[in-house]
Fold this protein.
Amino acid sequence: MLLKLLFILIIILSSCADALPDEIKSLMAEQVLLEEEIKLAKEPHIYFIFDFKDKKIYIKASGKALKELIIKDFGFWGKPLDVKSAALIKKSSLFGPKQSKIKPGSAGDNGNSGDFQLDALELADMPESYSLSLDGILIDIKPETEGPISLLKNTYRSIKLHIMRPLHAVWNIIRGKQFTSIIVSLGKKEAQAIYWAMHEGAGAIIYCPDRI
Amino acid sequence: MKIEYLQHLKAYKILKSKTFLKIIIPLAITFLSVDVIGYFTAGQGCKDISSAANLKKNNKGYVAELKTRNINLRGIIKRLAPSGLYIVVDTAENVLFLKQGNKIIRKAIISAGSGSILEDPSGKSKWVFDTPRGEFKVQSKIVNPRWVKPDWAFIEEGGDIPNKTSKERIEEGVLGDYALGLGNGYFIHGTLYTRLLGRNVTHGCIRVGDEDLRAVFNASEIGTKIFIF
């Protein structure tokens, strides 16, 4: 009985996948990508393209790639995505960077004396593991697993993810929206660079034509 | 021997206890079920592109039409990109690139904004010393620029704020030999503190070393695009 149900479920789900020629699907996805990019490139802002086809994240402006970052690995969960443009709503991390406060009257050194201490927010202060909430998309950035401590951290992240993303999905369904969760594995510096560069309100395009 | 040793461990006893299994198994099933239900419900609706493309499938003419359309779209994007020299500033790495197309003409180590916060003791104003991000244009080119100290500079030093036209606000020599204005009081300029190049230390301006500044200044024109991220 259980097997029958499972079989029916697989049939229903696979019926969603059509037998479109790959070339048409790919060209249509590219067309949507280009149309969405034109909209973003016309604005005087930095935007981001998460290209899962080429496994790269592009930081762009006016159609020009300013920086390319390599995606080590990724995984999708939930609503299949082909191309989607959305703005970053929120960045969240367990240990986010803290901006330091200047005490009035404490300035005047500027780094010339020997005991000068730099009190600034730099790339190394950025988290390497965090979530990016876009409209109907949750991107979880995590570093590559390297060694036992990293393995432990990533196991914790996986457990948290398996609990949180169904809740996100249910919450979005209640609001009448669809939901996709993407797990992206990046190098430490790349992950920190995205956290640094991506500000709330920044435009992003998710491009994954092979999943159609 | 090993099994006997394990049997004495507290954790092993807990793992084998029926109460533990009664809790952990339903919990695991619940989470798995929610995960599976969430996956399928979130995935409903399937693909927008596919449904649209279904109408046109097996149409060879349509493939050619799509290819042409995409070439045109790529052309539009290409035309939006700067045609001449432009400047790219990576505030995370504290690097400035002078570029033409994809070619790097010059790479310079810079200092960008510290991200620190300064509050007026009276509580009326607050400043965040970030370098602005986005697309800008060179709005002014100044030789031997003088720094007109804004209010925050006096608050930071713990002094009184002079009136707007006061000579106390003028400081010579601190901005180096050249400055490129980006608007809103932000500049690409020189620095006396060259040992801090490569670090995020400024109040939002972009500090560049003397040689690099001269090269960037000479190559730039009013209207040269600057991309800061």
Observations:
- Residues 2-79 of chain B form one domain.
- Chain B touches chain A through 71 residues (CB under 8 Å).
- Helices of chain B lie at 2-8, 10-16, 18-42, 48-54, 60-80, 151-157, 210-219.
